[in-house]
Write a structure and sequence with these properties.
Mean pLDDT: 87
CATH superfamily of the largest domain: Periplasmic binding protein-like II
Largest sheet: 9 strands, mixed
Shape: elongated
Order of helices and strands: HHHEEHEHEHEEEEHEHEHEEHE
Radius of gyration: 23 Å
Structural class: alpha/beta
Strand content: 15-25%
Number of strands: 13
CATH architecture of the largest domain: 3-Layer(aba) Sandwich
Helix content: 40-55%
CATH class of the largest domain: Alpha Beta
Distance between the termini: 48 Å
Number of domains: 3
């Protein structure tokens, strides 16, 4: 079995067409077909079903696809490590926007200091999409707010964040004190991320436990645009301390929700241990260390370390 055969197979799967895959790879369609057939012969099973409109995975192909991706990634890591000669490689890390606003730059600094030969790939995306990318092995690890316990992921709680109501001073019914109870904001018009966002899922569960029906008037999945809507006085929002700290600097009203259970947990989620490269293992350690230092130095607003870590 050759690595190029795995690349050819995955290209055909991605494009669902031998012709388009061959065009991307820069080889002839017949050469591509021969290499995939050779791979199937070696495995003694059919991986792709050829149809008049393209190719589709067989059940064996579905099972083989995951391991093929993993093998190629590990081979690429091995090549990079050999070329650089010390702790090196490539690691991809996913961060939700609010978490990235406080964690990303300190993480870059720490990785450059400790492991200058590790190539760090940061992806900023809504947590629901990050979970999907982790599932398809496009990421090595990510900070999520929920994790499917049925998956063979490595899950480590990092910290809990207090949540805040953020409004403009012109919004009718906006809370005015330093803190507010969740029950007192039930009719306040809210702009929140959609259900793909982990914060939204957390908030809906919290509202449901409290018997409150939130007044959600708008959904926006980009943090910058969401905060523009708040500054425009269209609605209030609920965000963790990292976003709240920047909002106060912009002249918005920031009020802490005083209910003890209204928090958001940040989880460090990784691929299964046996799938993590040395670079990914190193990044996992650095992320935990950086998060701990930020909280203890008071640089992660509204955050406290997960109790089991102390």
């Amino acid at each position: 079995m050759e690595l190029r055969q795995l690349r050819y197979f995955l290209a055909a799967v991605e494009h669902k067409s031998l012709g388009q895959a061959a065009l991307e790879l820069g080889i002839g369609t017949s050469a591509l077909s021969q290499q995939i057939s050779k791979l199937e012969s070696e495995l003694c099973t059919r991986l792709l079903s050829r149809t008049s409109t393209g190719v589709v995975l067989t059940s064996a192909g579905i099972a083989f696809q995951h391991h093929a991706r993993l093998t190629l990634r590990q081979a690429e890591n091995a090549i990079q490590a050999a070329q650089r000669g010390r702790m090196s490689g490539y690691v991809s890390v996913g961060l939700p926007p609010t978490t990235a606003s406080v964690l990303a730059l300190p993480l870059i600094d720490a990785m450059r200091e400790r492991y200058p030969d590790i190539q760090l790939h940061l992806v900023e995306m809504l947590s629901g999409y990050l979970a999907n990318q982790l599932s398809t092995r496009q990421l090595d690890l990510a900070v999520l707010f929920q994790a499917d316990s049925g998956r063979k992921w490595g899950i480590r709680p990092l910290l809990d964040e207090q949540l805040f109501v953020i409004t403009s001073s012109t919004l009718d019914g906006a809370p005015t004190g330093k803190s507010v109870r969740l029950a007192d904001i039930g009719r306040l018009p809210l702009v929140l991320p959609s259900q793909h966002h982990g914060l939204r899922t957390t908030l809906m569960a919290t509202f449901e436990r409290s018997g409150i029906e939130p007044n959600i008037v708008m959904e926006i999945d980009g943090l910058a645009l969401l905060m523009q809507a708040v500054r425009g006085g269209y609605a209030a929002t609920i965000q963790p301390g990292a976003a709240a700290a920047h909002s106060g600097e912009c002249g918005l009203r920031v009020v802490q929700i005083e209910d003890a259970h209204v928090t958001r947990r940040n989880l460090l989620v990784t691929l299964p241990e046996e799938e993590l490269s040395p670079a990914a293992l190193a990044a996992r350690l650095v992320i935990a260390d950086v998060a701990r230092d930020l909280v203890r130095q008071g640089l992660w607003p509204g955050a406290r370390l997960y109790e089991a870590q102390d």
